[in-house]
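Q&A log
Question type: sequence-to-structure
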Amino acid sequence: MRILGVRFFRGTVSDAVSRAMAGGLVVIPSAPVLVRMTADAAHREALLGANFAIADSGYMVLLWRLIAWERLERISGLEYLRLLQQRLQSNGVGSGPVVWIMPNSISRDRNLRWLRASGHLTKLEDCYLAPVYPSDGPLNDRALLDLVLARRPSHIVICLGGGVQERLGYFLKIGLEKEAGASFATGIHCVGAAIGFLSGDQVRIPMWADYFYLGWLFRCFSEPRRFIPRYLNAVSLVLLVWRYGKDAPPASRI
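Response status: OK
Response body:
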């Protein structure tokens, strides 16, 4: 199913993870991330260039139901990450290494503790500390691409903020297609802050709150100055969905 030109997966979270295990770029765009499609061409290109997206935004799912009269089941990003981690753990080292991209050393250490406690034997060298990327425009991280080409991981899990991770994932997807060829089918998963909710690096969101689409409220209480303006800006998603429906909106900076 397409919403604003983005290919959203229809099915269960288990089906989504099974599809993602075969390779390709998977994004989990929040409402604010979808709104940014109109402000930055590189961001728009990354969302449209993903193999598929996970409909984690309850706000978007409800809007689509009200405006398009079409049902799209929400897939929790937290549940997606939990199941992905379990699948990666059960596959073992025989399927190739996994590279985790972390925002900083503090988050890396907390996330590593959670991964190891969950049974995933992730090593320090499996983690790449991301530099400070520009807030818009195309991304180019040659050091990361060289690392991926050298290690040839079966999966890359990007644990960065929305608006950055999608562009980074798209950069890796295009770079790997050009330099490694179609035979190297790695999965690129833009899971964002989900791992931080599980590891304690960010405010913990109870599963009941996630089920009732209230994760955004917990984030607003935890960091009101950061998240309240962000979610208020997402109100404009109503106009985008109403005007463009299944079609991709134009970006102002092409």
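Response note: Strands lie at 2-3, 6-7, 24-27, 52-53, 98-102, 127-129, 155-158, 187-190.
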